Amino acid sequence: MTLKVKKTDWAHRYQTSLQRYLCQKLSSNFKPACKLGSQVADLGMETLELAQIHEQSLIHILSHEDSSLAQKKIILKAKNFFNETNCSIEKTHIIMLRKEDRLNQLTHELLNLTAELKASRVHIEKEIIKRKKAESALVKSNANHVNLMQISRRLRLLLRSQTQAILTTQEKERKKTSRVLQDKIAQALLGINIELLAMKVSDKKVEARFSNEIDSLKHFARINSNKG
């Protein structure tokens, strides 16, 4: 069933319910009007369209009434029925307005949240860039540290080797010097002894002087011998 057919069917039911309402002595029973009003909202009808259906229904009903006074009473009574039926449309409008306001509010909140998320994403991207730079600098620093440690180790080994070489050279020079001195002292002693024998000195003073020199040379020789 198409929407147009549904509206036509609803218009017939509206006219029938309106006639029944006008025939009632009591005009406080608006249940049929409320029911029709809920159906109007479901069909998507507006107040203007409802007013046109109401007018057509009222013309049909008034065509059977000749008294102008009776027609006025019918028009006034029918107005109440129309107003009750139209309440559903107005309520629907109010609900729609509230929903629209709520939708606008949610849209505004969504836009704010989107802006916050964008700002947060930019901040995160900047932090990632900073972290990558820091990691790169740390890797470079670690590489430099390892390189410096290797250089330091090589320098320590070189210093140790050079120190050992210097000590070895000094020890060799000291031993060589000691041997040279010992040879010179031995030669000097030998010369003195030869000189004593050649001179055949009987003078005690001269003998004592040479003895002191010989003792000094022997003492010096012992010292150098101990060092060697």
Structural class given helices, strands, pairing?
A: mainly alpha
Count of DSSP helices?
Answer: 5
Number of strands: 0
Principal-axis shape? rod-shaped
Largest sheet: none
Q: What string gives the helices and strands in order? A: HHHHH
Overall helicity: over 70%
Report on the architecture of this protein:
- By secondary structure, the protein is mainly alpha-helical.
- Among the domains are: 3-100, no CATH class; 171-227, no CATH class.
- Helices cover 90% and strands 0% of the residues.
- The protein is built from five helices and no strands.
- The chain has helices spanning 3-23, 31-43, 47-62, 68-199, 204-227.
- The longest helix has 132 residues, at 68-199.
Summarize the structure.
With 228 residues, this protein is mostly helical.
Structural descriptors:
228 residues; mainly alpha; 5 helices; 90% helix; rod-shaped
Topology:
Layout: H1 3-23, H2 31-43, H3 47-62, H4 68-199, H5 204-227
Helix pairs in contact: 1-2, 1-3, 2-4, 3-4, 4-5
